[in-house]
Amino acid sequence: MRHESIWAGALEKVRAAAAGPRNGSEIAYEAAKLHGEDYHEDLLGGTPEVSALDKSLALTLFPNHHAKRKVGKCMSLRDLAGVVSGKTAPEKGNLPMLKLATFGDVQTPQGSYRHDGNMRHVTGIEADYDGESLTMAEGAERLKEAGIAALLYSSASHTPERPRWRVLCPLSSAVQAYERKALVASLNGALGGVLAPESFTASQAYYYGQVARKHPVETMLVDGQALDRVRGLPSVYPFANDSTSGQGLGKGRTGKPLELIASALMTIPNDGPADYKGTLERYGLAMHEEGQGAPEYFEVFRQWCEQHPNYNLRMCKSVWPRHRGKGTPDAIAGWSIVKDAIAHGWEMPPPSDEDLGFEDEDDDDFDDIIGKSAPAKAESAGRLTFLSPAECVSAPARSYLIKGMIAERDVACVFGAPGAGKSLLTPFLGYAVAQGREAFGMRTKPGSVFYVAAEDEHGMRGRVRALQQAHGDAPDFRLVGGVSNLLAADSPDLKELVAAVKTQRPKLIVIDTLAMAFPGLEENSADAMGRVVAVARALTKWGAAVILVHHDTKAEGGTPRGHSLLNGALDVAIHVKRDDSGIIRGKLTKNRNGTCERDIAFRIAIEDGGADEHGDPITLPRCEELNASEAPATVKLTAAERAVLDVIHIAGGEVTEADLRKLCIDGRKVSSSDNPDSRRRVTDRALKGLVQKSAVIFQDGLYCIFDDQCDDFDDLVSDNPDSVRTNPGLSEIAKRRNPDGLGHTSLDVSESPDDAEGVL
Predict the structure, then answer these.
(1) Environment class of residue 11 by beta-carbon count within 10 Å: exposed (0-12), middle (13-18) or buried (19+)?
(2) Range in 66-70, 409-413, 695-699, 734-738 the model is least confident about
């Protein structure tokens, strides 16, 4: 037996005994806490120094292909290499099988635990190569160049002359079964598209060990990153009816449309190779075999030949075979073109599940939502799960999107009064996810974001510009426009959005706002609000979390507006409002992923948006998070203090002490007492309290406060300057600070960020 390791770029042979089990590879599944701790560390965003080859993975072993028994294990790929090398059996059918995944307790009618419906979580990707041409060392070298950590081992039928092997790659965190296919496609792309199509089958497991009188088992370790951490890998999927099953790309017909083969051929350079005629003969033969001599295939071939500087139609015709090919699996045909095109950067488009020959993901949950009538079918078995306490302990934790607050597939709601700042907080969170940047001290897992601007697409473009100026570009952030109705049963907007989500698989979807995206919604109706929840849950099907932006109730309950069914269905709820200290805060009223005591505090920062057609400055608002030192603790105001604060607001945010006392005492808003002295004493106590609580500032004979005068930035940049609202109650000092009456401070007024706090 031989064990090899690619480490720091060198191949070194190591005795199989040295790669034997370490730290107890026979750890019982019930005691697999080591995996849980390692996995939890990753969920917390930690970056342990341990190599991906030494990361503890949960996996399942089956004694044979019948899989009527299963054993859960927890070990690293380095430990697993020793297990693979140490197992022997007289025949292949007596060898055990392994799977880098966890399974439940649901059996098929034949008693097998190994089926797609029983798969819980995927902790790594395993795949098979049986093309008998690419050596295991060559495969390892390709993985090393891509930076992917892996364990490779030879299969029972492997020989040096006819190589066959398996590859196992760890993941940084466990994923759902539906996410596995895309990861296999990435691995296939790194290896040049050589993997056997059965590698894409979700619950496919593989034999491991030594068969008596067969070639000794060889193992190789490749150091690198977990597969899901490697960026920029091409995705290579198999095609239906792939006659090259087990051979990889390079032989036989594809049976695919001419458009796809033409796309691949045109990717291959034809700018003057030394063996011009030999190249023409190769691709002429391949195109002829693929299209069985059809004239349209010759026309594509001729167009490709035309790229050559010495193009000659007569030579092009001379290499075109005169007879139809036999269509044998090993003939030079479309797969030869596809293989060469991939080597030049071409990517095969992902096929549908039906094209792959797999059972399609159950889309019946969309039938009622998008108004599609589906034929009745028998209820599928295996949808229920039954976990023992030990399996609950060892099962992977939920994969976070924003650590401690939002997990994958969550439905959340950010709600608040008009102008509260909710439509500033949500794009800030989405932008952080798109960049993989911390938000309010919470780590984020990078991924693409769909921000559905149903209410104010124009204004949201300005907010995105502000975020780009402050934090740099975020190519994975997508502002989705054109959505106006997700409520109708036959909504084309919903159908198009669902199709985009299924194809592009964003990690976060924001719908801003619920009222505009679901026009005519009877919010107090359980049925109507149930549809909103159904749409949101349906959009999470492919792993995305969904955030709904909504209004709050007038009552002091801290719940989203409308039927209580919405709040009950949420995983996370964030109530946005300005607290009594003038800081905007997002209060977690519900959080299934952590504490509700987290302080989400921010203020409004202003970015320069240039000038409009009249030369007036354009201001772009954005959320600017505050740390603990910048955001004072939440303070409570008395009724009298709130009344005085309202008077200062009405006066324009600044008022002299004499005017304020007159307004408070004469207006009887602070105190309704008939005694003027009593009203004066109440006013004095309220003013003293406001100053002590830093709700107002007294300086130069003025009581000052900055506040908002706009509703969710409707008029941030008005196309008609004559339509800009002004506040007639502003004092002259306040007008200098808030020249447009909206709380928008021109950039040339002051460089202090505090001058921007009034924008909301």
Answers:
(1) middle
(2) 734-738
